[in-house]
Structures are given as structure tokens and as C-alpha cells.
Amino acid sequence: MNKPDSNRVLRRLPIVVGGLGAVLLLINRLLTPELTQSQARGDVLGVVLSAVLILTGLIWQQVQPRSPDTVELIGEEGFVLAADLPETVKTELAWASHLLLTNTVTRSLVVFYQGKVLLRRGILGTKSEVFPGAILKRVLETQKPTYLVALEIYPGKIEFDYLPENTQGVICQPIGNQGVLILGANARRSYTKQDENWIAGIADKLAVTLSSNLHNQAK
Predict the structure, then answer these.
(1) Distance CA 43, CA 192 (A)
(2) Phi, psi of 130 (to 5 degrees)
(3) Which one of 17, 72, 80, 134 has the largest count of C-beta atoms within 10 Å of its C-beta?
């Protein structure tokens, strides 16, 4: 279920106050049997102030950033590591995934490396295996990240069946030339450029650790 926009009341407040002020001025004018010059000047000033408030509210509706609508991802929360990993790798993966889950909008993540799932954490999908589709294969081949800002509109979304079924946005970040860090968010267009840079930096750090500790497994 979508969560309400937390800024909605703030954006509408000037319109409400301005409209209420205009209504009260009108009522006051109708109930006044004899209009004095000072009251007329006050009414003009009140109308101007009400108009300014209403105009400000309309502008805020357009220019104030809206928090993206979020959903509750379907699935159980979990933390699954491949059992045969060296302790150094397990520690690195645990550290990296914790940072991503607590410092970005990521709610579900998978580390796929050398054809194997090394880690699943956050809200888990129903499937545990990753079978690379066209999108993941392209990321592996080009070693360039892909950001799917609204997953449900992409025909290729079916390949991400290992993420929660209502995942809203996905980033596929290459880990060197042998793996991909797959991150799922609970809101569309919710990753910022700063988030993307942060994710790229963590993926680069993982690439160094994994390549130096798992090189024998690739043979």
C-alpha cells in the first residue's frame, strides 16, 4: 500500500489559510451595515494578502519536491550468505550490505558473483537462484550499471524474480567483470545521483575483496 506524501499538508497550508481569509473578509463585509474608509482599506489589504497566500500555495504545489510513494515489499526479511565463503568475504559482504540497506533506499539486495549467489539480504524474494536475463547479461558484458527507475514498466522485469514481486526500482551495479550487485527499492525513481555514486564505490570495494579471495573458485 502506498504511503501518503508527508509534505502534502505543508504544500496546501497557504491555499487553505488564504482561502479561509478571503471567506472571512467576505462574511465581514456582508455583515457590516456601514462601511468606513479604514475598513475598506483593511479589506483591500486582506484581499491582497489572501491572494498572495493562495498564489504561494499553488506555486509550492509545483516546485516543492514530493517524496516518492513507497510500498511494503512482499516477502520475509532475511540475511543469507553462501556457506563456503571465507570469513574475510563474509565480513565484507555483511558490512557492505548493511551500509546499503541503512544509507540508501535499498530494501532488498543480491550479490551475484562468478555465476553464484553469494548473498541475499533485506526483504527476500521467493526464489533464491539467479538466472541472468538480458539486462543482467548486458551489465556483465559492458561493466556499466543499469538503473530501472520503475521496474514494472520494463518487459525485462520477469528476470528479477529473485527480488520481491512488487519491487519498484532496481539498480544493477557491476562488481568488476565477474559479478553484479543487484539492489531493489520500495519506491520508483528513489535513488539519487549521490546514492548511485555510493553504490558504485561499495561495488568497487567488493570487487577488490572478492577477486583476491575467490580467484581459486573461478578455475
Answers:
(1) 47
(2) -115, 120
(3) 17
